[in-house]
Amino acid sequence: MLRQRSLASLSFLFAVAALTPASADAQICTLTASAATYVIPATSHYDATPSSNFTGVGTGDYLFEDGWWFRVSGDTQESFFPAPATTTCAGSTGTITWTDVSTRGLFSATNTLTLTSAAAGTGELILTMSITNLSAVNPLVISLFHGADFDVNGTAAGDTAILLNANNYLGITDATAGAAQYRAFNAPAEAFLVRPFGATTDVFGRLGDTVLDDFDNSGLPAANIDFTGAFQWNLTIPASGTASVSVSLNGNAAPATPVELIGFSVD
Ligand SMILES: [Ca+2]
Ligand SMILES: [Ca+2]
Ligand SMILES: [Ca+2]
After folding, report:
1. What are the average pLDDT values for consecutive 10-residue runs of the chain, which has 267 residues?
2. 204 C-alpha to center of ligand 2: Å?
3. Could you give all domains of the chain from N- to C-terminal order, each with its CATH number?
4. How far apart are the CA of 157 and the centre of ligand 1, in A?
């Protein structure tokens, strides 16, 4: 399947790259656990099309893109997390930090990454994004977003997506072989959005446009979809406080955290 974003996006990427050549290497993160590998490449991750790779968890590359976004109260659109201050990745774990996200003086952030692989051809990546309010006076009202473009069995062909638990746990299954799971926990996401891949219409297109988006739990079930999906959390972080959210991205492996713990409800 043709994967092409708009020329405007590419021009923007080149412009950013030209401005920040020295920091590009700080973006690389490679995690390995047995045969499973997750990679944030040297470029093209901390932008509107956050390239990443997830291999050794089935046939081919299970991830085309995944990344974090935010919107602070008063903003009129969402923003991607820009290139970080530090990246420390070794073996199966990593830590990526921002001392002042987007130089707005509002919050710092730490993304903690852990990759596990209990058996050949399987893997689970857990990302925990911690946000610290830099104000000692005012609460920080912020929406966080994480999005992922899964391609099960290495391509979008034959993929079907369903909701496994409202509204924080999604499953994508390939008609030939393989399955992926994507969930948002600690705290559970408040909403999801699923859309077929499209430069301006998929979840990254929605997060990257100039329109404010609050997800509405739409897009599932979907058959024969080039899946893109994202979660939204709405947080109020006290002055000088820290809050965190987690996602897991699973290839042919059940979540290590029991599903009943990711979204508590009483019938
Ligand atoms: Ca597929
Ligand atoms: Ca938007
Ligand atoms: Ca996809």
Report:
1. 51 46 71 98 96 98 98 98 98 98 98 97 98 98 98 98 97 98 97 97 98 98 98 98 98 78 43
2. 8
3. 7-253 (2.70.98.40)
4. 4
